[in-house]
Amino acid sequence: MRGYPRKLIFYAAIVLLVLFTTLPVLYAVITIFKQESELYRFGANPFIYETAPTLDHLVYLFTSTPFPTFAMNSLVIGLCVVAITVILAVPAAYSLARLTGHWGEHSGMAIFLVYLIPPTLLFIPLFRIVVTLGLANSIWSLVLVLPTITIPFCTWLLLGFFRSIPRQLDEAALLDGCTRFQAFWKVVLPQALPGIGACIVFAFSLSLSNYIYAVTFISESASRNISAGVPTELIRGDVYFWPSLMAATTAVAIPLGIAYGLLFDYLVRGFQSAGAKEG
Prior knowledge:
Pfam families: BPD_transp_1. By secondary structure, this protein is mainly alpha-helical.
């Protein structure tokens, strides 16, 4: 019985943490189906339906706003950013970890510092580049710009991960007759899949959530992504379409949360490896 109070405190803390993380999502889901009259009634319980639920706000989001277009644009942007990030960050991290000697071993933090530069300092010069290339008001402006954020971070993350893979694996493959590329592709790359999975989740999440670049580079509604399009369409002056805003938030957050859950082990292994090696 001596450890009972400690266990009670531990489980109480877990319950509070679960409530803290799940109640906002629960509130958002409930709000989607509330009647307007109930939603703005003073004293109404936000977690209980006092009148019959309605699907009007959900229907409005998908039929009376360009939300499906925003979602498709976000998907295309996310997939392109992920592909560019993986194609460039993986060989860069491997080269720094294996082929550049002592200098490469200490370059991870310098690369990571590029990621820490605030976007508010970069969006004006990047806007000039986007305009010069004729990509303004196009989703391809975000495909071009967002990798400037994702590649430095993912290179740093994968750099630590490649360092955790023993060099003896590369050397054994080279002794068996493999070229450097074959040793990387057949031996090292499969060992780095958890880190690559972490990079994929990070790059896709950032492409969905980035707001300042999306608003700066794109002004046409048909080319906007979710982060810029939803506030523009569902916040008009001082009028907030709260149920439809909650529906848009939930439609993005729940699939992304499921993806994080499925790749959670990969994320933990990737960040632990990078943090341990940099430390």
